[in-house]
Design goal:
The chain is mostly helical. It has one domain (34-294). It has 13 helices and no strands. The protein starts with a helix and ends with a helix.
């Protein structure tokens, strides 16, 4: 009952923010859309890097699966991530992780393995984002809170230590209820962490590129910090897809870099629609490739 109330609250909150953003875009007029159309290189660049990011996310999930799970080839996992990415942007109030879970179950990945891999991927995402943010803020302290980097580093170390302690003191329970979980928890952790680090890198490259092409270049550490904030927002914010939260962040950073409001709004539109276009094209391309491939085998 509490879960249903929480989901309905999220949906209502999302619809309120969506309505507010639509009104805001209407008040902005055609200027942001004109700027978007005048910057096809930024839009295409976001699509290309986003495609690489979806590949990295799907492979990171594969690294987090139990070793004895029967999982589909990477191309199918990438297609599932593209499908869930598309639906989460178009119909987030009715389709989120549930869509991905259903598709994975159709491919033979049981609910227990799916939950285990999702929890591990979320945990590693949080660790990786905190570690990256700590490194950046220690090297380039924020004047308002100069010791923030050390705080993030302490939280990261706490998460890492908690994971090790949980594995050390819950090994018998994990072995009893999740026979394959104990091996996966130790042996491939560094590999999963590596792929999740790749997600931070691709996101940082995406930000660096789009701001540069919009004539508002970011420093490399600012790009990584923005990627860290995006990942943490995706993990902890109440609203699906960080709608309104991430958009406000992008507009604020754009204004800080010297863009006028219309240009900053156009940048946010490029980020949103670039991701959507990449996911749709990836979904369509892989589904057609799989159909042709199976047809050639059957023939």
């Amino acid at each position: 009952m509490k879960g249903n109330i929480f989901n309905w609250l999220r949906r209502i909150f999302y619809l309120i923010i969506l309505l507010g953003l639509i009104i805001f875009l209407i008040r902005q007029g055609v200027e942001p859309w004109r700027i978007l159309a005048a910057n096809p290189q930024a839009f295409i660049g976001v699509m290309v890097v986003t495609t690489l990011g979806i590949l990295v996310q799907a492979n990171a999930f594969k690294m987090c699966l139990p070793q004895d799970s029967k999982y589909p080839p990477l191309s199918r996992l990438v297609e599932i991530w593209a499908i869930s990415g598309t639906t989460s942007l178009l119909v987030p109030v009715v389709a989120s992780l549930a869509m991905r879970t259903v598709l994975l179950q159709r491919e033979g990945i049981g609910l227990k393995a799916n939950v285990l891999a999702t929890v591990r991927q979320t945990w590693f995402n949080c660790e990786c984002a905190l570690f990256t943010g700590a490194i950046v803020l220690i090297a380039y302290p924020w004047p308002v809170i100069p010791y923030l980097g050390y705080g993030l580093g302490s939280i990261w170390f706490g998460l890492w230590l908690s994971r090790k302690c949980l594995l050390a003191y819950s090994g018998s329970y994990i072995k009893l209820h999740f026979p394959s979980a104990l091996r996966i928890a130790y042996s491939p952790s560094w590999l999963a962490w590596f792929w999740l680090s790749g997600q931070v890198i691709t996101m940082a490259v995406n930000y660096w590129m789009v701001f540069m092409l919009m004539a508002a270049p970011l420093e490399w550490h600012e790009s990584f910090l923005l990627a860290t904030l995006t990942i943490l927002a995706g993990l902890f914010v109440f609203v699906p897809n960080g709608l309104g939260i991430l958009d406000a962040l992008w507009v604020w950073v754009g204004n800080r870099q010297g863009l006028v409001l219309g240009e900053s709004v156009a940048l946010a539109l490029i980020m949103r629609f670039g991701y959507l276009a990449a996911a749709v094209l990836l979904w369509f391309g892989l589904s057609q490739w799989r159909r042709v491939f199976h047809r050639s085998i059957d023939g």
